[in-house]
Amino acid sequence: MSSKSIKKGFNRNHLIIMALGNIIGSGIFLGSGTVISIAGPGAILAYIFGGIIMVMEVMFITEMTIINPAPGSFRVHASEIFGPWIGFVNGWMFWFSGVLGMASEVAAAAIFTGLWFPGIPLWVFCVIYALVMTGINLKDARGLSIIESFLASIKVLSLVVFIVFGITTIVGITSFGGIKPLPVFQSVNSFMPNGFRGIFASMIMVMFSFTGTGIIGLAIAESENPEKDAPPAIYTITITVIILYTFSIFFIICLMPWKAFSTSESPFVEILNRAGVPFGSDILNFVVLTAALSGLNSSMYSASRMLNSLSLGKQAPKTFLIKNKNGVPVYALGLSSIVLLMTAVISYIVPSKVFEILAAASGFTALVNWLTISITHFFYRRKTLKEKPDRLKYKVPGWPLINFIAVTFIVVVFATSPLYPGQISGLIGSITLFAFLVIIYIILKTKKLIN
């Protein structure tokens, strides 16, 4: 597939904003509470470990997309190496992960809004936000990136402000509510109260915080100059995310006992509540709300584009090829939004667990794609060196060793996920979904209903 078939719209800044908007979301602002409750202060190591995996995956995606900036990105690349079946499975797994990511973000947005309006059921907010963000996504790529620029800037700035707040509190410049640094680094037991078991048990929720990286390949394919814009953009993206995540978690565990965090409220809001900062919790609750909406916004973009790519590859109904005057695949967006509305049903049935369930499910399905990307890149580099070495404009350092490292790390995360009982269903579900899609592909291929 040629990149000429799609409408170009992103420059380097757009790539950075869209990626940050998709990666930084409820995973850090809400999910970090769950991570800390499982791993304790050792959550810092969990986020660093997750960040290393993210960096490798982003580099793999970037190299392959620069070589062939096709709609669908890594789905198309996997198909070139292993055949159309893996492209089918990969694409639909990504779509499911994207929709689950959208669902978790809208659930988080509903939870944050519910703090101001506790009498209104969460499902009401889920419906409202789903409809509003669908309307926003009907704009073209440039219009979408402008809106995302505003939303992403708010949450990046809020993390920076929180880090500054943490620094000034620890060094004694400010002392809201008498908060003082906690002695969490005095011993191994205080830093890792649940040992390495706790760190590995928390990794699925940590990885959910990084799963928005898939949008990078899709956005590069819609960029004006992939070879020039993508490499510097990914370095900015990965460095920014790792610094913001690591320092934010560091100050969170330094300023509040790790056992005191709730899995249903943002740790950032809890700390400002405890500190008694005037209007601090309300302001930050608004910030984390915009963060969730930003993640929902960009997840909608990536999910609908992947569905459109599947249709381009004749692995989804032709209806998803139809675009409006802005170049937006309206029916692909529509299906993604309709499935998103199911979040309202889940939030009605299990309101206290809706975010955790959806986040874990999204994390598992995304990891399956990351595993495929890591393996695909190994063979894609080898294929390119043999057939089109001139297309290798950007090279991932450390190939092929880095691919073995990435695969090993991801397998370890999968293998240790049952350490947290609530994640077993997600693990089984992701494996079942993968097998189900393979069977569906075989049936459709046999009946010659797909390419």
From TrEMBL:
Ranges for the Amino acid permease/ SLC12A domain? 14-444
Q: Supply one GO BP term.
A: transmembrane transport
**One Pfam match, by short name?**
AA_permease
Q: Which regions span the lipid bilayer?
A: 15-38, 44-61, 82-103, 115-136, 156-179, 199-221, 233-258, 283-307, 328-351, 357-380, 401-420, 426-444
Q: Where in the cell is it found?
A: Membrane
Q: Which Gene3D superfamilies match?
A: Amino acid/polyamine transporter I
Keywords for the protein's UniProt record, in alphabetical order: Amino-acid transport, Membrane, Transmembrane, Transmembrane helix, Transport
Q: Name one GO cellular component term.
A: membrane
In terms of superkingdom, the source organism counts as Bacteria
Membrane topology annotation: Multi-pass membrane protein
Q: What is this protein called?
A: Amino acid permease
What organism is listed for this UniProt entry?
Ruminiclostridium papyrosolvens C7
